[in-house]
Amino acid sequence: MTEDITLDHLKELDIKKIALDRDKFGPLTFEESYPLLEKLQILFIELSELGYLDKLIPEEINKVNNNRNHFARLVDRLQKFDMQVDQNFKVTRDNFEMEVRSLYNRTFVDLREILVYLRQEASQNKDTRLLQKERGEVQQVLKEAEQIKKSLSYELQDLKKNKEAIESERGALPSAYLGVEFKKQSGEFEKQSKEWGSGRIKALNLLTSLVVFNVLLYSVGLFMDSNFIEKVFSSHYFILVFALVSILVYNLGFATKNYNIYSNLLITSNHRYNVAETMNRFLGTNPPPEDRSEIIKQK
C-alpha cells in the first residue's frame, strides 16, 4: 500500500480479516489494534466523501494527509508482518499496537475540529438544496396558475366578441345559451375557489401548528436541563424552521390571492348568469320590437 491511498482502496480494506489471520500470526493476532485501525479507516473515508481537499486550507489538508499517510503505512506494515522471519515478533507486535494507539489518539485530536466543520458545511448544503427544490415547485405552481389565468382571459374575450356580434346582428338574443355557459363557468370557478380556500386553511393550520409547537417546545425547555434549549434550538434547527415558515407564508399568500381571484370570478359569472336568465324570461314574453331592441342595446 502506498501513501497516496485512494477512497476506493480505503473502502475495500478488510482490516479485521488481515489483523486476525491466525494462519499467519498464530495466537499473536492484533486484537487490540484492529478496532482502532477500523475507526481510523471510517474517519478517513468520511473526510474524503465530505470533500476535504476542496473545502480546507492547505495547512489543514496537510494535517489530514499526514495522519492518513501514517495510517496507510501502518496498514501496509500489518499486511507484510511475517512471524516466521521475525524472531522477536511478539515485541514487534506490541510496539506496533502502541504506535496504532498513539496515531489514533493524535488523529482524533488533530482532526476533530476539521471533521465538525465539514459536517456542518454538508448539512447546510443539504438544507439549501431542499429549499431550492421547494422553491422550484412553488414556481411551477405559479406558472400553471398564470396559464389558467390567461386561458380564462381568452374565454372572457371570446364571450365579449360573441356578445358584440349578437348586438350587431340585432337578432334574437341567445340568452339561454349564455345562461348555460355562465352557469358552467360558475361551477368551475366555485370548484377552484373552494380548492384554493382549502389550501389556504391548510397552510394557515400548518403555520399555526409550527409556531405553537416551537413555543411549547421552548416553554418545556425552560423547565428542563439548561442545555436543552441550546441543543434543540441550534442554528441548523432555526434554518430549517425559517425555511418552513417562509414556504408556508408564501403558500398562504399565494392561496389567498388565487382564492380571491376565483371568488371574484365566481361573483361575476353568477351575476352574468342571473342577467342572462332575466333577459331570457323577459324575451320569452314576446315584448314589443322597440323594447326588444332596447334590451339588446343595454346588453
Indicate how many domains the architecture comprises.
2
Please bin the fraction of helical residues.
over 70%
Q: Report the span from N to C terminus.
A: 92 Å
* Major β-sheet profile: none
Please tell me the CATH architecture of the largest domain by its name: Orthogonal Bundle
In the predicted model, the low-confidence regions spanning at least 5 consecutive residues are: 168-172
Order of helices and strands: HHHHHHHHHHH
Our count of helices gives: 11
Strand percentage, roughly?
Answer: under 5%
- CA radius of gyration is 38 Å
Q: What is the CATH class name of the largest domain?
A: Mainly Alpha
Mean pLDDT: 76
CATH fold-type name of the largest domain: Helix Hairpins
Tell me the total number of β-strands. Answer: 0
Offer a concise description of the structure:
The chain is an all-alpha fold and 299 residues long. It has helices at residues 7-12, 15-19, 22-25, 34-49, 52-55, 58-80, 89-169, 175-222, 228-232, 235-283, 289-298.
Offer a few descriptive terms.
Helix Hairpins, 11 helices, 2 domains, mainly alpha
Summarize the structure in words.
- With 299 residues, this protein is mostly helical.
- It contains eleven helices and no strands.
Strand and helix map with partners:
Blueprint: H1 7-12, H2 15-19, H3 22-25, H4 34-49, H5 52-55, H6 58-80, H7 89-169, H8 175-222, H9 228-232, H10 235-283, H11 289-298
